[in-house]
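Figure 2 data, in text form.
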Amino acid sequence: MVTGGHGFLGSHVVRSLRAHGYGQVFAPGSHEYDLREQRQVRQLLSDLKPQLIIHLAAVVGGIAANRDNPGRFFYENLIMGAMLMEESRSRAAEKFVTVGTICSYPKLAPIPFREDDLWNGYPEETNAAYGIAKKALLVQSQSYRQQYGFRAIYLMPVNLYGPDDNFDLDRSHVIPALIRKCVEARESGASELIVWGDGSPTREFLFVDDAARGIVLAARHYDAPDPVNLGCGHEISIKELVTMIARLTGFAGKIVWDTAMPNGQPRRRLDVGRARAAFGFEAQVPLEDGLKQTVEWFLAQRQKLVRKCAKTEQA
């Protein structure tokens, strides 16, 4: 069972599981079962009786969404994961995979981020509520393994991107937001594009198909209490990223940096040695290749939407 299986990462994980021979893969939607309600969590597990649970369902967003919703992001992410893991344990599920977040790392963690540094400081303030809620699920998984022998593992993917991402500017992360802004600026003939911050922070990005493959590899081959990073091990500055996306989308105007807006965490780059050693995971899709696929997908989806609207109006 994959919670959040109809979402961005979840839909790719479901496809990867099926490609690896899992015959029955359940992906219940939030309209069917509300994971914030214990009664519905119990009903879900009673109805589906899953052996392997991959918990991806989350309330997420970019810097603005995290800044505006810290209470909601903390409570809903914590309660969904905590109740689902407890009820899965009580029903003797065979394995539980929690997909956490690198937002749990301290704001000033040494580069590259090593799993052993996870507790050496407080997360970056704009996403601390989300990061701490997810980190609490690591403590729960380790505690349950220690006391009950429950086979729970914990993975931390870096920033993801790719086809099926969320391009809603109120909730999207940096890559889909930049792709949409660049495309719309080019189409409108805008002479400039305003981007938050000063462009100096660095980020590491993992193509969604790589992330899905890593999660499935871990579900099949990893069984230890230690958290594991999932990434590619390379970072790029936001300024370089904007330049690359502008080129790929054909936007030739001026980039204007709004330094009154937050930068977020100064740097992000992961040590990916544990994933490679523990279950043989290495990223395969270079950033520019993945960005090209993502831009092409976004443009194709917009064209489909326009055609669908035109047909509706004609009818």
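Caption note: The domain at 2-311 is CATH 3.40.50.720 (Rossmann fold).
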